[in-house]
Amino acid sequence: METNLKLHSVTRRWLMTVLPVVLLVIVVCEIVVCVFVFRFYRDSVSNHIKNYVRDIDVLSMVDGASFADTASDYAKEFKYRDKVELQIFDSGDNMLVTTNGFVSKLTVDNAVDYFEAKKSGGEATFMGKNENGENILAVTSILPDLGYGTNGAYRVLVSMESVLVNCYATVAVAIAVGVLMIGILFFSGLFFIGSVLHPVREVTAAARRIATGDMKSKLEVKHNDEIGELCDTINYMASELENAEKVKNDFISSVSHELRTPLTAIKGWGETVSMSIGEDDEIVRRGVEIILDESNRLSGLVEELLDFSRLESGKMTFTMSLCDPAYIVGTVVRMYEEIAKQNKLELEFSAPSKCEFVMADPDRIKQVFINTIDNAVKYTSSGGRVAVSVNNEEGCVRITISDTGCGISAKDINHVKEKFYKANSNVRGSGIGLAVADEIVRHHNGLLFIESTEGKGTTVTVVIPTVKVDEALEADEIFPPLKKG
């Protein structure tokens, strides 16, 4: 229900914000169109009126004595009497003649335009209803004084009934167009919002299914637009979460197995030792050795998990000092000499007589080589070979660990440094050793990269930048204590 309300609020928000603005714009445009149409018809009629009487200035060329007769003659010969009514006045506001034959007295009520024109000495227009309730347009002009005396004014009246009918029809069409536009806008807007909300509802439902653990939930991509891109992203997220869930479960299973194996050995040999005390000293000695070995193995696994947790939370600390990487790598190689013998492996180590120094945390960088050499030994079958070499290069030291083991498949090679990822589930390990090693090397501004061919072997290369001894000495205050590793 909450989801539906949220989705429906999009429509409501559109109705409350966008639609009123558009309606206001359309209404304003309608008003402007109506005013324009009205003025257009009025000005058109006014221009016609002026054309009808454009020769009336002849009345200004007669004197006052003959003005009345000339006005009467002009009215009789006025050829537009069927279109408009012409009224002519003398200077005393008396109507001398009218083309409709009904001479009347002017008042302020029935001739507003006349008195305004007299007041301004020019022209005035009035549009409204006459005494009979008919819509009219009246234009009054004061005749110019050409030196013959004040010769009065003329007034032209025209019925606006047919003109207003056309005007109202045009306005009605404009209003109808506006209403049609509003209707199209409303329904197209609802359709568009619906076309957006429907896939959004599907995305929301899919996201909820994913949130409840249904990682196989997928969205059908129907549009090649932002909605389609969102669906692709949701599907990608579901796939990644599904993979992460699988990796997590595999990690838990692997770690559980890794923890159970030494615990089982410790428990079993502990019971054996307890029953053999005083009876078989050789069994007791062997049992204690196995218990200590398995305890160390269990301690190492727990420490690896703790290191990973520290790296993830950013709480792992590094105590930097001047180190000889060849010395550290050689120490780790010696740790695995016995294991290599037991597994019938050939373990080789080569290093320059004088190795360049690096600024590093000896314990952390040693952990990197323990992880990588341990992997090389674990994944190499009996009769194989593991070669470890240290080489000076310009500005760095390159450490290479090569083996002739099972190798890594092409589909796994890009993921082996990811946390919890195990390319081979048949070999012991938590799947976080390389992830921890890679992060430690990164903290030393170095690089760790892996090359492998399935069935032929793997090469792990660690590159760490070197420092000059003099520069390292200057860094003593920053990275104490300064000592050779």
pLDDT under 50 segments (min length 5)?
A: 1-7, 474-485
Helical coverage, percent range:
40-55%
Characterize the overall form: rod-shaped
Gyration radius, to the nearest Å? 51 Å
- The fraction of residues assigned to DSSP E strands is 15-25%
Order of helices and strands: HHHEEHEEEHHHEHHEEHEEHHEEH
With strands numbered from the N-terminus, the spatial order across the biggest sheet is 2-1-5-4-3
Tell me about this structure.
By secondary structure, the chain is of the alpha+beta class. It has helices spanning 2-16, 18-52, 64-77, 112-120, 161-211, 226-276, 281-313, 325-335, 337-342, 362-378, 410-413, 433-443, 469-474, and strands at residues 85-89, 95-98, 123-129, 135-142, 153-159, 321-323, 346-350, 358-360, 385-393, 396-403, 447-453, 457-465. Helices cover 54% and strands 15% of the residues. The strands form three sheets. Strands 2-1-5-4-3 form a five-stranded antiparallel sheet, sandwiched between helices. A hairpin with a 3-residue loop joins strand 11 (447-453) and strand 12. Helix 2 packs antiparallel against helix 5, helix 8 (325-335) packs across helix 10 (362-378) and helix 10 packs antiparallel against helix 12. The chain starts with a helix and ends in an 11-residue tail after the last helix.
